[in-house]
Amino acid sequence: MNYIERLIDRHETSIPLYIQIAESLLDRIESGELLPGDRLPSERELSKRLGVNRMTLRRALQLLETQGLLVRRRGDGTYVAEPKIERQASKLVPFTRGMKRRGYVPGAKVITFERRPAEAAVAKKLRLLVSAPVYFVLRLRLINQEPVMLERLTVPAHRFPGFERFDLSSRSIYEVFEKEYGIIIVRAQQSLEPVVATEYEAELLEIKPGAPLMLERRVGFDQNDQPVEYGKDLYRGDRFRFVTEIAPLEL
């Protein structure tokens, strides 16, 4: 493999060697020189070709594995991972619809569904009185049967009477909003921030505790500009990439 000899720059630099190796591998993945499913040489062979010890090489590979760019299969080797799924941060695209457009089979597993009093922070987001009744839904979202996102959703109970009668393991919540209640989410205020998985979240998402996640907080507004949903969704950092269009330079 010709890229091996070009992985690291032997010139004087303050950048740690394992980061140089990781960045060079990343460059080859992004350029298409290394394709999804390609198998890297063994650690022994790769460290020998690069003239580095295996601990240094292993740190580089672990860094890329944490970022979801490499997959290490016990007893089989290290492979280039499938490309991350892009989510448009600047557009309101329901998960189910977005995944179907990309050729995936979306799914859901309801973990928790309950009616509860609204806490102060949630009540403020949804313009409700504190302790007003709300429905809280915790769903595990799947693509091709793989858990990739943990969805937490709160909606005002008075806007969605009888919400508990719908099977949210097989239906899109936005589709239920529109078809059953005539409520259409037309815009949202949302924010993104990186977090790490707790033990509980990691168990549900089938990842390691401390693995990177992207937290999306969202308030969705209906056609009358009333807040009708508050969402806190956790996306696996190794499966998703968030992209947005940049506005003109602010002067």
Descriptive overview:
The chain is α+β, with helices and mostly antiparallel strands. The protein has seven helices and ten strands. The chain has helices at residues 17-31, 43-50, 54-66, 95-101, 120-126, 173-181, 199-205; strands spanning 70-73, 77-80, 85-88, 106-117, 133-143, 146-156, 187-196, 212-221, 227-236, 240-243. The strands form three sheets. It has a six-stranded antiparallel β-sheet. A two-stranded antiparallel ribbon has the order 1-2. A two-stranded parallel ribbon has the order 3-10. A hairpin with a 2-residue loop joins strand 5 and strand 6 (146-156). Helix 1 packs across helix 3 and helix 2 crosses helix 3. The longest helix has 15 residues, at 17-31. The radius of gyration is 22 Å and the shape is elongated. The mean pLDDT is 89.
Give the C-alpha Rg. Answer: 22 Å
Largest sheet: 6 strands, antiparallel
* Strand order of the biggest β-sheet: 4-5-6-9-8-7
How far apart are the termini? 48 Å
Portion of residues within helices: 25-40%
Number of helices: 7
* Helix-strand pattern: HHHEEEHEHEEHEHEEE
What do the pLDDT scores average to? 89
Structural category:
alpha+beta
Bulk shape: elongated
For this structure, the quaternary state is single chain
Share of residues in strands: 25-35%
Outline the low-pLDDT stretches: none
What is the strand tally? 10
